[in-house]
Amino acid sequence: MTGLKSLCEKDGLYEDLDGVLDILTRRNRSSRPPAFLWSRVSDTVHRELLYRIASELNLPNPRLIPSKALEKHSFSFLNGASLNGLYSYYKTGMPRKPGIHIIAGICNKLDIPQVSQEGWLGFIRNNNLFSWGNVPNPIKREILCRAASELGYPHPIFLNNDDFSRRFHFLGGKSLTGLYTYYRNRYDGARGIIIRKMCEALDLTPSKEVWIAYITSPDTNIFWDIIPEEIIRGILYDAAEQLGYSNPRMFSIEDLKVGLGELNGMSLYSFASRYFAKDKHGSRNIDFICDQFHIPSLTLKDWFSMISHQRNFRWDLIPNPCLRCILWRKAGEAGKEHPRMLKYEDLAEPCRFLNNKTLVSLYNHHRPEARKANRDTIQYICSLAGIPAMNTVQWIRVLSQPDSKTSWDRIPEDVTKYILYQAAKELRLQNPRLLDYQDLCTVRFDFLGGKTLSGLYTHYHEKQGDNGGALVQNLCDGLGIPALSNAEWIRMIADSSICHWENVPVKVQREILYRAASEMGLRHPRLMGTREFDSVPLSFLNGKTLSGLYYHYAARIKGKDNRINEFVFDQLSIPKMEIHPKTGRLNTLDNSTQTKYFDSLANRKDFVNEYLKRFPFTDLLRKYTTIRNARETGIYRKGLITVLAPMSPRGYMDFLYEIVKNVPRDELGIRKRKDGNYSLQKSELYQLAGIREKPEIPNRIHFADPDGTSLPDRDSILQSLSVYREILNIKIKMFHLVPCRFLVLYEGSCICQVKVPLNPGDVITDNLDNEYEVSECREKKTEDGYILDLKPFPEQEESAYAGMHSLSWDSNDSILYDYLSELQVEVRNNTLNPLLSVVLGLKKEGHLTSDSLVQLPDDAFYNKTLPENETQKQAVQLSLSLDEEINPLAIIHGPPGTGKTTLIEEIALQSYERGENILILAKTNVAVDNILEKLYKDRVPIMRTGNHIEKKSSLPYAPIFSTSNAQYRSAIGDANCITLGTPMGFYLDRNKREMSFDLLIIDEASQMDIPETLFSLGMAQKCIIIGDHLQIPPFPIQNEVLLEYDPDINLEKREKLQRSLFEKLITERGRYHTLFLDVNYRTENPHMISFISDLIYDGRLCPNHNSVYYSVPKQKRKGLFPGQTIEIVDTSEIADIRARQETEQDSTYYNLSEAMLSVKKVLDLLKEGEKLSDICIITPYKAHAEKLKEIFLKHEKSFRNPEGLHRFIEKNIYTIDSFQGREQRNTIINWVRSNYGLPGMPTRTGFLKDYRRVNVALSRAKRKLILIGDYETLTQSENPRVRHIFTQIKQIKTKQKIVL
To answer: Is the pLDDT of residue 5 over 50?
Structure first.
């Protein structure tokens, strides 16, 4: 032992206690005490001093001295002084072991004896214990044992938390809360765990018997968490043994409720229930408990025993290896080669290895899951168990057995796929897709032991409900049999001995027809007749014909009147020929009846034009000379002699006059007339030919032929109305409330984004009750949706649209839907007025002839020049001849610039003069304004209907005639008047006067869809419909609506639904009185008119013979009307492709090079003396119109008049659609499209394929037309119409035109 002496290195030690006490108490105060250090005090003195301290503190041993007593107690033997210096020395100057109390450590070093047990007990009884950590473990163990004994417990483990708060007799009435607190601070854990830890720390670990007594004691609240794992594991095994199990994992929940002998009849349910609410990650409760106590998994023998003895065994608990073993054993008992061959009946048989228990419960357990997965239950169980699928050979062996009744829903898809390939191979077919349903149902296949595949067919037929080839194709698709390319299909059809055409996809059939037409030298499949189908062998099909395809569709056709060829083409969605096969012209509904080349007036003109390049006009007057000369020079066309030979001399002159009537006389070598006019008269042509009769005034009206037409049945009319009602209903549901996002306010228009398309012209309302008219709607490709250009009523600041988030758009369609519903009721009840009866086909128009028309003298016309135009004159007479019963309808076809508005003005004035109320409706406010502008000058009562006219009309005086002008409305009173508006604007007008209308005039009727036109027709008793179906059609029905109406809608049906009522009526020849306005007044130069006429109207348009062109001689004419009135600017001549290519922007396009060239051309026109206000630029694309405005602003310095340029940018740059109904002196067109793929591949030209839009663009100019575009792209378009149109345009430069 190292004493305290060792701490004093030099000088003497204090060996006397009294000397130390003298120093500490300063008994001799006359002298200064020497320096005192506790380190110089000897061990003996320290020991004596500690005993003196203990004595004063009434402690039996210095080891019991508390630290704070040294620091704070005033010792009497020190005259009331403390010994804090001594404590500091012990604390800082003396080394000590961690965890050993300071005083205890000093006492150890000074060999002060330990406190006895009784000493400790006495100390604890008489003092407040400063720390239980200083109490030796044996003393604490004795205290715990005495406390348990005093409370009657056999072991301290029985103590609970509250027991430590009791006052114990052996401690003089003190509690053990301090002891409990001491151990609680040392150990964390659940209730009871501290007592267990306390026992373990004091070597008081309970035996198993103690723990059993603890668990079974009625006075104990069991804390299962404190019971050691090995004790509980032993209890679980003992319980399993009592229940006859080899493993606790074999328990069921019911077993846990059984009283156990070892636990004095107590069950383990309270123990197990502690785990029921815990997250067991899919394990059952018993397994989870066993896992906590490391009880090993069940052996296969254990599982068999458990399944055998448990009444409601849970099959979701069994591991896959065990389940796999059970299924294999069952297959062996059932005599099956593989578990997947088992059936329900097998599972219902008792299993010897399971003590005669069946496996029905296993089947029933997995059956719902299998059904949900659309799987056979036994196959599903086998898959869960990891049992490999039967190989193909095994399945074939099973299916080939005579008594096999295997369900096809059990056979794997790869096996079914193999079987189909084998069936096709046995029938010498190249692919299963060529199998026919008869092959499956009737052929006995060798590889199946002579069995058919009728079960397979029946199985899939019941699942899909398809028949024939469609089922086979769907079956192949479902089995993953690769879809074949068109080329592969064609090669297989060529190599196969038979072909079931119902199996061949429509796209392949369509491809075959196109290839067949090409091999036969036909321009289009629709030129194929029965002979071509039935008798022409095709090399690409190895000499086969298409008779099988022909008779396949012949068997499906209904009705004897249908032509099989047309039925085939329609079923395969082969489009109508865009270029007429006989005439080579654009194929329109107007020329669909032409069957020969010379049925086309434009072709006759082309022939005569070529003839006059070679021969004098006088040779043309003799038809046989004409035929001979044509043959000699190689310009003869097949069919010419057939056309000309039967004609009489007079008939030939009439025929010839229609061809050459627009050619100035001097161009034909004929001297001018005395009145100075160079137009050719028919009478003069008669004289040149030596015909003495006077020519008759030609009748321009195609009168209805009631005897030669039949009426549709009432049911078909009702069905047609139902179709449009259904489409309207879809639109109402789809667009009732359209979410939108406001983007920007641009040039007075509100630009926003929506998810669905809306139609231009629609009036809509937002959630803030602002009203708008849709100006434009275009698709946005970068993200789903459409961009809307909305015209607000009235205009507001941009901040007013901040809360805009939805648009409501159902009022118009709801109105039309209700109207069609009422119309159907009237059709059923036969209560329609004559006008609608005639339009719908319930009634025929009456007989009219030229002689029965109202004959109006020329001086009775308000427009004195109108009678000079015989067509317009007859149109007025036809209109005045209509009545409300027999002839209530006339249809007038008015191409661009033919004076439709002038004609409407005349008809309206004549009818007004007769005391009639006239209603004039047009699709657009622009068309209504054009008519108002005419009638405004005639000083007749006019009412302009529609709300917010001041915003919808561009005419400053329109509000004067508005129904909202109460003063004006009052001045008219009840007198008859002329009312104008759009259909919906008129119907929704809040201020209009209620009146009946005698006559309805519909302008631009080809832009109205069928429901809106029918709605308009219900407003009057007789009607004149004026329009041009060869210009812009109605806005198309949204694709989303069409697909909702018919997901399988084909191209023909789609186009039929998009047609206007005007187009439908005017093309039903013989049903109605119709007339074609043939004189163009807009364009000054006949060469421009001739080009549009030949391209679109089959040569039927004529220039105005009273124009300047026909009043001046040839030389002067060339100066006034230069040959290049149509100027072609071909950007494909720009060497750099990138410099001329289009740019796509949100599904629309612009072309920077064309925009730059447009600036140059405008500047060139200004140099020629043209005014900026007389120039306009039109383009198919909105993005390009915006780009044009941007480029012109960038070149503002190039223009002398900035204000004029700004007006030009705002008012004279249009899209084609927005320019219909307008005209301009000089028109520049930008075609925009310029793109290139691989060499020889067609180009993309978008909606330029709609020749009607091209017609609108080409027909706007009065003086000059400038066409800017990439003609290499345009003439190589994927669309035949675009190729044809722009090839004709490109040839303008080189084509010499005599006949106009």
So the answer is: no
Q: Alpha-carbon distance 919 to 1090, whole Å?
A: 35
Q: Tell me how far CA of residue 542 lies from CA of 499, 525, 537, in angstroms.
A: 13, 20, 8
- Measured from the Cβ of residue 152, the count of other Cβ atoms closer than 10 Å reads 8
Q: Are 776 and 1148 in contact (CB under 8 A)?
A: no
d(CA 460, CA 469): 12
- Shortest CA distance to 250 belongs to which of 167, 335, 313, 170? 313
CA distances from residue 192 to 141, 224, 417 in whole angstroms, order as listed: 18, 9, 68
Taken as a whole, the chain contains a residue count of: 1300
Query: Using an 8 Å Cβ cutoff, are 1001 and 918 in contact?
Result: yes
Of the ranges 5-9, 75-79, 1094-1098, which one carries the lowest mean pLDDT score? 5-9
Neighbours of 616 (CB within 10 A): 11
577: its two tokens: 């020929």
Complete DSSP assignment for 459-470 = HHHHHH---HHH
At residue 446, what is the residue type? D
Query: Can you tell me the distance from the alpha carbon of 1045 to that of 1065, in angstroms, rounded to the nearest whole number?
Result: 24
The reply to whether omega before 794 is within 30° of 0 (cis) is: yes
State the pLDDT confidence band at 9, using cuts at 50, 70 and 90. very low
pLDDT tens digits, 494-528: 887 778 787 788 888 888 888 888 888 887 788 88
pLDDT tops 90 at residue 442: no
Tell which wins on pLDDT, 29 or 1293.
1293
Mean pLDDT to the nearest integer, 875-899? 93
User: Largest Cα–Cα distance in the chain?
Assistant: 179
Q: Check residue 1241 and give left, alpha or beta (phi > 0: left; psi -120 to 50: alpha).
A: beta
Rounded-to-integer distance, Cα 542 and Cα 535, Å: 14
**For residue 670, with 0-12 CB atoms within 10 Å meaning exposed, 13-18 middle and 19 or more buried, which class applies?**
middle
Reported as a single tens digit per residue, the pLDDT across 59-72 is 888 877 777 777 78
Span 295-324, pLDDT tens digits = 887 778 877 877 787 777 778 778 888 888
DSSP structure class, residue 83: -
pLDDT of 234 higher than 90: no
Amino acid code (one letter) for 650: R
- Rounded Cα–Cα distance for residues 1240 and 1242 (Å): 7
475: part of which helix (H) or strand (E)?
A: helix 468-478
Sequence-separated (6 or more) residues with CB below 8 Å from residue 938: 862, 905, 909
Tell me the C-alpha to C-alpha distance, in Å, between residue 1186 and each of 953, 1189, 1190, 1204. 23, 5, 6, 18
CA–CA gap between residue 886 and residue 1021 (Å, rounded):
11
Least confident of 88-92, 419-423, 641-645: 88-92
Both structure tokens of 1285: 């149109």
978 in helix, strand or coil?
strand
Q: Are 642 and 584 in contact (CB under 8 A)?
A: no
Q: At what angle do helices 649-660 and 601-612 cross, to 10 degrees?
A: 90
H-helix or E-strand spanning residue 982 = none
Averaged pLDDT of the chain: 84
Q: Exposure string (b/e) for 253-286, b if CB count within 10 Å is 16 or more?
A: eebbeeebeebeebebeebbeeeeeeeeeeebbb
pLDDT tens digit string along 1164-1195?
Answer: 999 989 999 999 999 998 889 999 999 999 99
Cβ-contact 115, 123 below 8 angstroms: yes
**pLDDT for the residue 280:** 66
Nearest Cα neighbor of 1172 from 1194, 1196, 1150 is 1196
Bridge partners (DSSP) listed for residue 451: 445
Please give the full DSSP string across 380-434, using - where no structure is assigned.
HHHHHTTPPPPPHHHHHHHHHSTT----TTSS-HHHHHHHHHHHHHHTT-SSGGG
Q: Residue 389: which of 381, 399, 379, 397 has the closest Cα?
A: 379
For residue 544, with 0-12 CB atoms within 10 Å meaning exposed, 13-18 middle and 19 or more buried, which class applies? middle
